[in-house]
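hey m, so remember when u said the tokens were messed up on ur end? i reran from scratch. heres the input so u can diff it against urs
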Amino acid sequence: MTLQIVRTVADLRTALEPSRRRGNLIGLVPTMGALHAGHVSLIGEARTRSDIVVMSLFVNPAQFGEGEDLQAYPRDEARDLAMATEAGVDVVFAPSVEEVYPAGFSTHVEVEGLTSVLCGDPERRGAEHFRGVTTVVAKLLNMARPDFVFFGQKDAQQAIVVRRMALDLDFPTAVAVVPTVREADGLALSSRNVYLDGSERERATALKRALTAAESAYSEGVDGALDAAHAVLGDAGIEPEYLEARYADDLEPASSFNGRPVLVAVAARVGRARLIDNVIIAPSTEH
């Protein structure tokens, strides 16, 4: 199938209708462009599980807060389309802001609780960031009506929030989470890595090393795991915005590693870049 590029909801639905009539499975990969190998891995998983792969290409202004990098966010549609073609995307949906948020738009989708911690803490990005995410994802799910939607583990909180939204609102779409893709030095791939200079890039690798230290120290309990991670970050001169252990299903603070997977998540600013990373520590009967 030759790559189709559509820019309106009506054209997207028209493009997908023949496949839908044939009963083909449709997979959606939401992106804001600036594609990298992490996005390619999402497309690859979608290609494996779906008959038709749709990729959205839309820098969503609703999820950028005051002082964030909306205008500076990297945009190169020609490059993104070339990568999408190479990765096996069938349909790219690249709408304008006006197509997604037409004049008079006043409806928002908000997931409570899960969005008020970690990146959603009012002193950080705030729940408004996730309201922007869930609103646009809800719209994309209605627009494309996919069988699957794919997110990366790097954005763990986002995936957890979207899964809750899809469950609560009865979207007939399975939320699939794909493992984080990393550079050879361990840094999680992110479109914002382009902001890092050489020395900052080296310091940024401490995020992954801190999470590895937490995994190694988890036998000492939650406090011991976080202390080990803080030590690694401190050695790199990084003061995290947060470094927390929360249960991976509901983001409640984790009191132990007994019985439930624990998400250890970190966010930190290194130079101009705000970076996030995480690891899920599986439960062990020994703890």
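this time it looks ok to me. The chain has a mean pLDDT of 95. if urs says something different then somethings off w ur setup not the seq
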